[in-house]
Amino acid sequence: MTEQSEPEQTAHAEKVVRLGVIGLGAQGGTYARFVSDGKVEGMTLGAICDDDPAKRERAATEHPGVPVFDDYVSMLDAGAVDAVVTTVPHYLHPEMTITAIERGVHALTEKPAGVYTKQVQEMNDVAAAHPETTFAIMFNQRTNPVYTDLKTLIDSGELGRLRHTSWIITTWWRPQAYYDQSAWRATWGGEGGGVLVNQAPHQLDLWQWLCGIPKSVFAKLAFGFQRDIATEDEVNALVDFGDGATGHFLTSTNDIIGTDRLEMLFDAGKIVVEGSKKVTITRLTQDERTLSDGMSAEDVRRLFQGQIDTGSLYTTEVKDYESVWGSQHIQVLANFAAHINHGTPLIADGAEGINGVRLASGMQLSAWTGREIDLADFPSDEYLLELNARIADEGDFPARS
C-alpha cells in the first residue's frame, strides 16, 4: 500500500497592514472604528497614539488589546505598526510623515498635506528618497463617482480643451462657537489659515485634478470678515490655467444657505455639477468655434429674432448620484493597504498634496501683497516670511521654518 503525502499548501495567507492611528479625534476615531470593525480589507488596527490622557483611556476602552501610546515616535519604534495615518493638526502632517517614512513605516497623511510649501516639499523629497515606502494622502473625494466619472470623461478628450471653470462652494457655514472651541482654530500659528486650509482642501484638489494645475492666481480674501478670527473666512480667486483657460473659485464660512456649484466649459461642451450630486453634461454637435464660423449674417439675424432653435446644436444628459459619504474614506484606506500589499496604484499619491497647499498659499499671498502670484515658480520663502509675520502678531505660537 502506497502512503499518500499530505496535500501541498498552495494558498498563501493574505497580507495584513497593521495601521497606527496618530490622533484619536473625530477623524482618527472614525478610521480606528472602520479598521477594527473589519471594513478595510487588508488592514488591521495595530496601535493608537494620542497625547491626551482622556483619549488614551477612551482608546483602551473602545479597542481593548490594541497598544496605546502617548508619543508617536515611541509607537513607530515599538514595531507595532506597518503604516500610520496622521489625523493631527495641519502643521504636524509633514513632520510625522517624514519621521514615519525615515523609519520604514508607510504613511497616509490627512489633508491638507501641510500649511506651507517648504515643509510639504521637504516631505515629498524624503518620500521620493524612500520609494520602498508607500506615501499617500486622504483625498477621499477622488473616489466619489460624481468626480471619477467626470475625470474619465474629461481625460477622454471628448469635450475638447477647457475654456473656463467656476466653483462656488459656500456650504461651510460655521457659527462663532465653532471657532471658539479651541484656541488654535482659525489662527495663523495654530492652523495656518481659515477656510482654505480647513474646509476647502478637497475642492482645491478636485478642481486641479479635473481641470489641470493652475499657472498663477490673483485673489481677494477677507480676514475675520464675518467671524472673530484672524484668518480668511471668505475667498474670491481668479486662476490662469494657461493656453487661455481661466477659472474662478469662491468659498466662505458665513453663508447659512450655501451653494455648491461647479461649472466647466470646454470647446465642445459644458459640465455643471450641483450639490456634488447632480451632473448636467451638454455635448455640442460640433466644437463651438466651428458652429460659430458656420453661421452667416442671415443666421445671426434669425438667431437674434429667436428663429433658430439653439437646442438643435447640442444634447443634454443629466445624472443624479447618491451620497457615498463614509465609504470614500474606507476606499482610500483599503487602496492604501492594497498598494502596500500588492502594488495596486494609489488613488492619490502623497506627493500630489503640494498642489492644493500651493494654490491655497498662493491665494493668501496674493491677498497679502495685492499682486498675481506665479504658481509654477512659487515664492515659498516670501510666503513663509509673510506667514511668520502674522504668527508673530498673534503672539501665541512659535515661528515656522
TrEMBL record:
<dbReference type="InterPro" id="IPR036291">
    <property type="entry name" value="NAD(P)-bd_dom_sf"/>
</dbReference>
<dbReference type="Pfam" id="PF01408">
    <property type="entry name" value="GFO_IDH_MocA"/>
</dbReference>
<dbReference type="Pfam" id="PF22725">
    <property type="entry name" value="GFO_IDH_MocA_C3"/>
</dbReference>
<keyword id="KW-0520">NAD</keyword>
<protein>
    <submittedName>
        <fullName>Gfo/Idh/MocA family oxidoreductase</fullName>
    </submittedName>
</protein>
<feature type="domain" description="GFO/IDH/MocA-like oxidoreductase">
    <location>
        <begin position="148"/>
        <end position="271"/>
    </location>
</feature>
<dbReference type="InterPro" id="IPR052515">
    <property type="entry name" value="Gfo/Idh/MocA_Oxidoreductase"/>
</dbReference>
<feature type="domain" description="Gfo/Idh/MocA-like oxidoreductase N-terminal">
    <location>
        <begin position="18"/>
        <end position="131"/>
    </location>
</feature>
<dbReference type="InterPro" id="IPR055170">
    <property type="entry name" value="GFO_IDH_MocA-like_dom"/>
</dbReference>
<dbReference type="InterPro" id="IPR000683">
    <property type="entry name" value="Gfo/Idh/MocA-like_OxRdtase_N"/>
</dbReference>
